[in-house]
Amino acid sequence: MENLVDQNLFSGVYEGKKVFLTGHTGFKGSWMMAWLEAMGAEVCGYSLEAPTKPNHLELLNLKGKSVIGDIRDIPLLEKTMTDFRPEVVFHMAAQPLVRLSYDEPHETFETNVMGSLNIYEASRKCSSVKTIVTITTDKVYDNKEWVWGYRETDRLGGKDPYSASKAAMEIMTSSYRNSFFHLDRYGKDHQVLMGVVRAGNVIGGGDWAKDRLIPDIIKASLEGNPVSIRSPHSVRPWQHVLEPLSGYLLLGQKLIEGEKSFADAFNFGPLVQEEMTVQHVLEELKNHWDKIDYKIEVPEDMPHEAGLLKLDCTKASVQLDWSPVWTTQEGLGKTIDWYKSYYESNSTVTMEDLKIYIANAKERNKSWA
Ligand SMILES: NC(=O)c1ccc[n+]([C@@H]2O[C@H](COP(=O)([O-])OP(=O)(O)OC[C@H]3O[C@@H](n4cnc5c(N)ncnc54)[C@H](O)[C@@H]3O)[C@@H](O)[C@H]2O)c1
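Above: inputs. Below: predicted complex with nicotinamide-adenine-dinucleotide.
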């Protein structure tokens, strides 16, 4: 495992810190666990079994504690948290797929809303917890399919069960911030600051989830079939997984440092001029790997998915001094190179990507680096 401790990233706040990370067996969680460990954090992951095979976490061979459990299993969740006594909680576990949410609405709401509530209740009972960062999505906004990016103050909504479950979870989170972790009573009646982070379509190596563009392309390419594309003109805020993670870690740093004005929601996404249609992404990917091919097929009974979705990240830029390190093209290139290394050389280049990302962040004067 790489050692990034001497680099003093995020002012070194994660060194020796006990971090409870839900969703660590998933795509974003496995990258997060690797980064936290490399900065010297003591991590306890808590999730269901890895959702895919192959699985990124298994490829990484991390040394942190890994508990396989359900966030709906209150006794196991509370026992795990109380035994570990974390100071920081990053809550990523979720049913994260829009299409699956149409087939499994009950499970989606139960996991995303009640599972999150269980995390907050367990945190209330575990006096060591001081910082909670909850991972939601750009899809929490009441999407009007307009050309402007959504701001943190825009109305929440959600036409599909996944989006609605995440928006409902945010309203519930806000009630916890008002009822139990009120900012006016911080440092007197309680010690907890809660942040919420909303990011867009995340790409990067190690994702094998169903119904996501890049994993679908990789699978189809390896089988020698052109991938079938449902929404070629959809615009999404694509970004490499390390981009939102640097934002989550930076917000976490501010909360750990007790800066209560940051106990709020933040968007993390690419620069406005970097947002791309699905077809544009495919063309970029083809430039990197000639195996990639696609065909456009829009099914007649396709369930609703947002066509135009943009995020306004001014708040993260002004208040947190956060902005992406890589362009979308660079992120797409790194993503395809990751899969090429995995399938053609049997090697997992996650830590190499992380080192390059940090080196680029330093060269490009990012405050956290
Ligand atoms: N990947 C994206 O493009 C994207 C975009 C926006 C938001 N998000 C959010 O980021 C977070 C992580 O998503 P991901 O892409 O890594 O998804 P993923 O499917 O790869 O991982 C989900 C993780 O949650 C765990 N999990 C699911 N249900 C659980 C339960 N009941 N109890 C315990 N663990 C459970 C899984 O085991 C897995 O570890 C989610 O909250 C998701 O909504 C992801």
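The radius of gyration is 19 Å.
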